């Protein structure tokens, strides 16, 4: 059996590795347009800040090591130009040699990921305007900073990547401005929670502009000014564009593979697309939201990895399924961990839920034990059923634990007042006898009465 | 309504505070034989090691502050000598004044806790043989160490308290020997996991003797030698007895309140004892195990707190219930967090389960991110149903998170192969895309086939 995988980052390599383990004799080839495969996109901001010093540390496998350890062939710097489902062929371009050939497959996997949205603004092609997409793009930013010792940076976009990069650039003692079109940072958080982040970034000296977007980049060859929609002119030595990402679906669309309402590729629980023997996984597909059962597009590395496993099993006809996601995510922004799971209050209302919420500050562990910190917990609860719909947690420590417990609780459709019944681990260095999530559950439940 | 609460630590104060909140007009009195109430027993080893410097820091409320903040009256240094259910009276001794009086109650709560078992061995009454029970007993140990600058310590018992105290005494650069009767430390862990702790303690210079108990203490007035059952003589400057604890049930037993098969007080889900209008909560009661539905006695501060809340609600006739426990526990032993939930392999077999287990080492977070550590995860799974029965985790960091997720999973009767379906939070500083608990779940499930 010949299997072709288009894309060699999280989903592509997971799929190929799993399929090869189940089908030792299959000929599996990964085509990746980039020179690197199997890197951690989520690690790139830390590579830029030099917290992770070595380039090779954000790369899990080089093509050679992946081939040796996992089996599939890896063709890096090969771009798939077209999928021809009728003939079960792909047209592949060898970027270095500038040659094209047609290759036949028995089964095909689309793992083309997502890419940064680049706004079509005047001056967007000037030098020193960067996006962060892969290791090479991180290299370009890092090399620019090292060579030019810039003083000022403007980040367009206040989402995860924009804010992680703001943290990263703080390490270089830059004068940083973040410009966000919405009326708050981190629009996938409720505004009251996002304000905690905004205050924290402001206290670190980062300038935040909300309700305003970039309208033009000025400069001669190199950017030197960002003009905003409200007419502000911000001098800068470079710009990072981080207004968002979009699924890479051109190949799929051109092959008449069905896209979903989110614009990403539609797949079933076995990661099959609308065309037989063509699978898709990772940031290019949409997912079922486990609470609403509606399709959502929330591209994340953990989802890509797990979907790769399911796609690999499906290729080998091993029973497996990817049932959906809860939109759980976490990031570190300076000293704060910022996490969410399920629906925000805004999302829940938009989905038609009648909700109650509780927002509390609670200790990470016993108050008398060194390292005590207060963390902010917001719980969103269905007023009718009492079920937990979502949570957002922000704090210096103990955030990841609590969001994971709540993600597990939501997965199991627990009610807010059931959290107190959980037998969580207590000892002074780790927690308090009645955890904040339990208190938040009781308070939210009380509001239902 | 007159409510009397016997015992003023975790369960007693929680009960009284909750009842007062629900019944603002009730006359609630706590009788506590000790001079302190509302202290953190779990914090005492850290107080002794001076990690927590101030005595008042391990005390949540003084009697005065509790009265002012929560409402109930607190009578410290008052020992309840007898309960007379027929007359709804208790006989209380004022320890300082050496007077006794009878007091009438409408409802009574027994929160008498647990106490260290002191073996009846020759020489056990010699000076410098200590137990750790309350703040005063911690003071005695701390004062002894400060005044006498001992060189050597012997700890009898290798359970939580014994090992937490071993860590604590390491701070004083003492020559420490731990003597444990069983063939392993921490008998509520499986032996393979306990060995990790044993190796770690040995590497810190602590001597571990297993399969041997104390048989005699020698010395003139002060202890200077521990003689073991195998005949070893260990020279020492002081001894800590930590062979275990037992429930304080004398009062209950004398009042003909039903005890359970574990020897602790039997209560229903509303924390009612067998005699009407008498409730019990905390370390003196036995609990329903949520997996086996058998009674167990696992005294822990978190359980006591939660039971206090339920008892308080029951006193006020507010609907609430305490359904049971999973035996979740965590402790810090030197640099290692050591945690468990559900059943160990040994316990599961004893309960008649046919089990499979998986034991793996997994990363706490992304390998390239600073602070990477491997943690040890053992999962115990029901071979027939695939349900997770228990887990044990040991490591330097990320242990509390994973044990709490697994405690939540077990509470919801999740199967091992469902863990991979959880949408846990991933980012390099916090986790890996496919968490170790997911891998452990898949491996254990595979063994069922």
Automatic annotation (TrEMBL), chains A, B:
One Gene Ontology term of the molecular function aspect: oxidoreductase activity
Its lineage reads: Bacteria, Bacillati, Bacillota, Clostridia, Halanaerobiales
Q: Which cofactor does it need?
A: FAD
InterPro entries on file:
FAD-bd_OxRdtase (IPR050260), FAD/NAD-bd_sf (IPR036188), FAD/NAD-binding_dom (IPR023753), FAD/NAD-linked_Rdtase_dimer_sf (IPR016156), Pyr_nucl-diS_OxRdtase_dimer (IPR004099)
Q: Which Pfam families does the entry mention?
A: Pyr_redox_2, Pyr_redox_dim
Pyridine nucleotide-disulphide oxidoreductase dimerisation domain span: 330-431
Q: Which UniProt keywords apply?
A: FAD, Flavoprotein, Oxidoreductase, Redox-active center
Q: Which residues form the FAD/NAD(P)-binding domain?
A: 1-295
* Claim: Flavoprotein is one of the keywords in the record: yes
By what name is this protein known? NAD(FAD)-dependent dehydrogenase
Q: So what family is this one in?
A: Belongs to the class-III pyridine nucleotide-disulfide oxidoreductase family.
